[in-house]
Amino acid sequence: MLLSSIVRRARLLLGTDIAYLSLNDSESAETFIRTTDGVRTESYAAIRMPLGTGVLGLAAGGIIAETPDYLPDEGKTHLPDIDHVVVEEGVRAILGAPLRIAGKVVGALMTANRTPGAFTQAQREHLEQIASLAAAAVELVGAKESEKVARRAAKKAAADLASVLTADGVRSEIETRLAGELAEHRGLDELLDVAGTMLGAQLRVLDATGSELACSASPERSEPEEVQGSAHEERGALIGDAAPGFVIVTRDAPPEVPGVVASVVARYASIALLYDRTIDDVRHFHENELVSALVSPPDPERPTLSPAMVQRALGTDRETSIAVLVPSEPDDSSRRRLLGRVRQLAKTGHTIVAGYLGRVVIVARSPEEALRARITALVSDLPCFGGIASSPELAKAPGAYAEAAAIASAMRATGQPGAIAGGAEAGVAGLLLRDGDPATARRFLAAHLGPLLKQSRGDVLLATALAYLDANGSINDAAEVLRIHPNTVRQRVDRIDSELDPSWRRGPRRLDTHVALRLWRLNRATASPAEINETSMGPAGARAH
Questions:
Q1: Which phi and psi (to 5°) does residue 213 adopt?
Q2: Are 30 and 51 in contact (CB under 8 A)?
Q3: Using one digit for the tens of pLDDT, what is the confidence trace for 209-240?
């Protein structure tokens, strides 16, 4: 390299131990060593010095600088870290001359000895002459570097243009084909098969939970599975009402243009998914309307169901059981997956299944236990909360539905997924819900929790009391559930003692308080905003927060 050759010749001509060349960094106002000869330590070769400090910084700042013995020279500005590096290298005497290009200082040419002593006038003159040559070399090297950078930039721009053109071609081909498939009313599965065949890839559509909604047929492989390389995946997000969810494109080899296909397929898959859902909704419109009419409260303005229609769907009038299922995740994909699973019940007759108010509702002419067993066999692997109730006659179906829906919400509030619970399984809350008297529950809450319901921080104290009783009086266990410090739990329990009297957590009153807290939690989980406002108001109208 040209600069290395110049530095080596400077060292030989001056007869010194080491030589090196630095370049200036105008943004940081520092000079850094670029090339060395005779330097032993990596730390010395990596020196960066602020301009104006030490001998190197002075020379790089524009003046000829020297010292017969650097470390004891008080006329130079010393930096502790640099002095330590100089000691490691063993440098004593230093001489430097600036590099000038068109009047601008761009660095310094330096030489040094590991023994102290002044430099001769001849050494100074030789160094200045070589510094002029080195400055010209720096300018030449800089020009070559700029030329290389320009060539690399031009090459990258050409590659980027080619990539963009290729990506546009791939995108256009896929979009044209998929748009044609949608125009032919193809569903999601057919769309994925077409895209998978075009790309030689496996395509899957997943919902937000990672559950698979659809999958293309596996592409034909030209080689046995065991000799294939690792698969490459692209992921594109579903859009619009189909979101959240993803399309995953899996291929054996890296795509020619990465990051293009998945996003394009995801757009068309979103349209196809919504089309499939619309068709499904239309196909089951009759069941949805029938369930809505059966479980809704009587309305004189709504036409009554004809006995013939009911008999075709449910058979003759006898005990009717109604189950309500709520998916653990409140998104549309989870509800549709649950609905699709339990619709198999309708194949056996005398059972109708429909989506209603964000829930899945099953109405069957069978006893509770029989319907519960049939549902459990289908949804045991799907996280959901369920309630079930029965009515001796169809006219009372709205009440049975309301009870089943309330129990499902109660099971969700108490964190008990998987079970299809009736009133007995829902515990004390289920018994009160079966009675169907909200006023009774409100009076019970006021009798046992009244002072806390009126507090400005009542919800915090009520939640603490519930966690404390659920933990069998363990401060530490309650703190872990609430994710707060045990001392905070103790302080809150003391506050609750002052409001309710310490007997709330001991003896017979403990059970009443625990039941009241459970009802409070269920009320918060199942009540409408208006009902929450009503139960949260004290006598003076001050709402608890």
A1: -95, -35
A2: yes
A3: 787 888 887 765 444 444 344 578 888 888 88
Q: How far apart are CA 339 and CA 361, in angstroms?
A: 9
Torsion over CA: 59, 65, 71, 77 (sign): negative
What does the alpha-carbon distance between residue 118 and residue 112 come to, in Å, rounded to a whole number?
A: 11
Output the 3-class SS for 364-403: ECCCHHHHHHHHHHHHCCCCEEEEEEEECCHHHHHHHHHH
Kindly state the helix (H) or strand (E) to which residue 48 belongs, with its residue range: strand 48-50
Amino acid identity, position 334: S
User: Any idea which residue has 């009503």 for tokens?
Assistant: 534
- Angle, helices 188-199 vs 121-183, to 10°: value is 130
Could you read off the pLDDT of 277-297 as tens digits, one per residue? 777 666 667 777 888 888 887
List of residues 6+ apart from 367 with CB closer than 8 A: 319, 321, 390
Contacts of 262 (CB under 8 A, 6+ apart): 234, 235, 236, 247, 248, 249
| Alpha carbon distance 240, 226 (integer Å) | 40
**Which amino acid makes up residue 303?**
P
464 vs 468: CA distance, rounded Å: 6
Q: Give the C-alpha separation, 290 to 292, whole Å.
A: 5
β-strands 245-251, 351-356 pairing? unpaired
Within 13 Å and on the Cβ side, how many CA atoms surround 536? 18
Distance separating alpha carbons of residues 378 and 513, to the nearest angstrom: 38
pTM: 0.44
